[in-house]
Structure formats: structure tokens, C-alpha cells
């Protein structure tokens, strides 16, 4: 059965099946119903006998039999439509290959055009050497070879390829995302902390001149600069980056402007836990602690104060006593830091010596 005869058969069959049952004359002449289905005469002769000649001929027998036959024909029609062989025959003519895509891959195609975004003559030349050019045969292996050749130059962060199929072939478009190479780094506005300390910290996180500058590295560099200034007692310091085009293509120069602003002071220090040290030592003694209320904050000085408190506790016999790392909270409204230091004295050890003879040196 050809595709034309099959379509005519389906159209006649649907027309017959969609006719309301109440309108059909069950006593019509024998040839009408077979001819409407396109079947030979006599194949359904028993269906058109008068109701009086049908076995068990009640008033609804003909309707029920007609519905049964219609259901069978409908099942046959569904089987015909769902048959994959007919689907393959109807999709393309025998011996003709489609220039479309199979599982996302274009087959039997020719490259119609090659577009690069943004345009780049050197990249166009690399693709041509890899076999990617207009009027050349399309192949996924050739596309992969061209992409790998572009990546080997080290100039690209990401490469994306899109193909637009056509009856004549495939139009290719390459989207190139270039790497931004850092050609220079300069600091401005830093007076409290020198360039060497800041540049050394920035280089330690991977941001260096001559290497790629990514958004992640830039964010880490700014956070590192802020951390250094906070440790020095400048919580309100701000670092603002500025990128300028470099002398070479796809290069940038980074300039970080720093606003140091006023220095942060210390809010009254709180001591919690086992209070084994006197208030005079903790609050009054001028040489015991440097981190006191009203003084400028410095992490380096605070760490020395913690070490000094640890030694004072051990001198009192609490050899296993601990001074925990201080908790620091910044109060932005007053530009102060709130410091809390916790003690754990543990067990105190007493050493008593008894005897008659004096101890020798």
C-alpha cells in the first residue's frame, strides 16, 4: 500500500466511523457499506441483513454489532499509525538522507559558513587549518579538533559551538570567551600599610601579573586587603578596584584604590569563665594588658595580651589553665570592637617541699 492509498483509506475510514450511529440506515442496500470502506462486495454482507434475519435479532442487535466492528477497525487503525515501519517510510523517501541531526549530531552535511563571535582573524585561521571552513564536509571529529586547537593557544576561558541545520548543510558559529591576562597591578591611597605587605598577600592567593585575572581572584584579593586593614585596626577601610585595558589585546591593568579612614577603638573588654586573676591585673595594671577600653585596636597586640594572660595563670599554679581565643565583634555604629576573653583554670597544682637539709644549688 502506497502512502497515497493509505491516506485515502484512513480518510474514508474516519469519515465512516465519525458518522452518528442514529443516522445510519441499518437496512440499506448491501454494496453501500463495503464501498465506503473500500472493501470488496460481500465481505460484510451479514452486517446489512434485515434485523428479522439476524440471529437473536432484537431491536439493538445491529447497533451493538456495528459498534463492535467499529472498535476493531479503530484498533487496527491505531496499530497502523503506531507502526514504526510506516513512520520511517513516511518521513523520507527511499535512498534519500536527511541533512538534519541524529541524536544531536549532524550527519551527511556540508559546512555552509563559519562565524566567530567576537571576530578574530587568528582564530579563523586556526579553524581553517583544522578543516573547518565553508564548503568543507562536516564532522564532529573535525569540530572537536578545531576546539582543541583553539584551547591550546591559552587565550580562551570557554568555547561554545552552535550549529544551524539547513537542507544544504550546517552553518556553524563559534562563541569565544577570552581569558583576561593581568598586565599590571598598582595600589593607591595606602599609607598605614606599605605596598610590599599588600602585594605579598595578594600574590599569595594567586593573583599575579602575567597570569589570568578572574572575578573570583579579584574578589579574594579585595577581601585579603580588607582583612589586613582590620587586623591593623582599620575596620572602615575600603578597597575599590579599577580595570583598564592593557597595551596588548585581551590584557587588563588593575588599580586598587584604598581609603583607610579613621582607626577603630576598643569597647570595654569582658572576661568570662574562671576569674583566677584579679581586677587590678585585668583592668588597672598598665603593663599587664595593652588591649583596654578606649585604646586603638590591633590584632597583633591582642594576641600578645592573650599570651601574657596564659603565663600569668600558669604562674598562679594553674598549669593546665587555658585562655581561649578572644571573640571579636565589630560595632559599626561607634566604630569599636567588642572583645570577650574566656578563662578555663582547670586544676590548680601546689608544690610543697619538706625536709631538713637545705637545697643545694
Describe the protein's architecture and organization.
This protein has ten helices and 13 strands. With 361 residues, the protein is an alpha/beta fold. It has four domains: 3-87, no CATH class; 101-178, Ubiquitin-like (UB roll), CATH 3.10.20; 181-259, Ubiquitin-like (UB roll) (Roll); 265-344, membrane protein fhac (Ubiquitin-like (UB roll)), CATH 3.10.20.310. Strands 9, 10, 11, 12 and 13 form a five-stranded mixed β-sheet that branches. α5 packs across α6.
Q: Brief overview, please?
A:
It contains ten helices and 13 strands.
Give the topology, please:
Layout: H1 3-17, H2 32-37, H3 61-82, H4 84-91, E1 101-102, E2 105-106, E3 111-117, H5 121-129, H6 140-152, E4 156-165, E5 170-178, E6 181-188, H7 195-204, H8 215-231, E7 238-245, E8 251-259, E9 265-266, E10 270-273, H9 279-284, H10 299-315, E11 322-323, E12 327-331, E13 336-344
Helix pairs in contact: 5-6
Q: What do the pLDDT scores average to?
A: 78
**Helical stretch tally:** 10
Task: Estimate nothing, just give the exact number of structural domains.
Answer: 4
Question: What general form does the structure show?
Answer: elongated
Residue stretches low in confidence (pLDDT < 50, at least 5 long) are 21-56, 84-104
Keyphrases for this structure?
13 strands, alpha/beta, 5-stranded mixed sheet, Ubiquitin-like (UB roll), 361 residues
Amino acid at each position: 500500500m502506497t502512502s497515497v492509498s493509505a491516506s485515502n483509506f484512513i480518510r474514508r475510514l474516519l469519515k465512516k466511523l465519525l458518522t452518528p450511529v442514529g443516522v445510519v440506515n441499518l437496512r440499506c442496500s448491501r454494496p453501500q457499506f463495503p464501498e465506503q470502506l473500500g472493501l470488496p462486495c460481500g465481505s460484510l454482507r451479514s452486517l446489512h441483513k434485515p434485523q428479522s434475519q439476524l440471529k437473536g435479532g432484537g431491536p439493538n442487535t445491529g447497533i451493538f454489532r456495528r459498534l463492535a466492528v467499529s472498535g476493531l477497525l479503530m484498533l487496527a487503525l491505531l496499530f497502523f499509525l503506531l507502526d514504526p515501519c510506516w513512520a520511517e517510510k513516511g518521513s523520507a523517501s527511499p535512498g534519500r538522507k536527511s541533512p538534519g541531526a541524529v541524536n544531536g549530531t549532524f550527519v551527511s552535511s556540508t559546512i555552509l559558513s563559519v562565524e566567530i563571535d567576537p571576530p578574530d582573524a587568528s582564530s579563523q585561521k586556526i579553524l581553517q587549518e583544522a578543516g573547518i571552513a565553508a564548503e568543507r564536509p562536516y564532522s564532529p571529529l573535525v569540530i572537536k579538533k578545531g576546539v582543541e586547537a583553539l584551547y591550546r593557544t591559552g587565550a580562551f576561558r570557554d568555547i561554545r559551538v552552535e550549529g544551524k541545520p539547513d537542507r544544504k548543510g550546517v552553518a556553524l558559529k563559534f562563541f569565544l570567551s577570552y581569558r583576561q591576562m593581568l598586565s599590571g597591578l598598582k595600589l593607591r591611597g595606602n599609607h598605614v600599610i606599605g605596598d610590599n605587605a599588600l602585594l605579598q598577600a595578594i600574590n599569595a592567593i594567586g593573583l599575579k601579573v602575567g597570569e589570568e585575572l578572574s572575578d573570583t581572584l579579584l574578589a579574594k584579593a579585595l577581601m585579603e586587603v580588607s582583612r589586613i586593614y582590620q587586623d591593623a585596626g582599620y575596620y572602615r577601610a575600603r578597597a575599590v578596584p579599577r580595570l583598564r585595558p592593557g597595551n596588548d589585546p585581551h590584557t587588563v591593568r588593575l588599580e586598587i584604590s584604598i581609603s583607610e579612614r579613621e582607626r577603630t577603638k576598643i569597647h570595654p573588654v569582658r572576661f568570662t569563665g574562671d576569674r583566677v586573676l584579679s581586677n587590678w591585673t585585668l583592668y588597672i595594671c598598665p603593663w599587664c594588658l595593652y588591649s583596654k577600653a578606649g585604646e586603638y585596636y590591633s590584632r597583633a597586640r591582642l594576641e600578645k595580651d592573650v599570651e601574657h594572660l596564659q603565663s600569668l595563670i600558669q604562674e598562679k599554679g594553674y598549669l593546665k589553665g587555658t585562655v581561649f581565643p578572644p571573640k571579636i565583634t565589630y560595632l559599626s555604629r561607634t566604630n569599636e570592637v567588642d572583645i570577650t576573653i574566656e578563662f578555663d583554670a582547670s586544676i590548680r597544682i601546689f608544690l610543697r617541699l619538706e625536709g631538713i637539709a637545705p637545697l643545694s644549688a
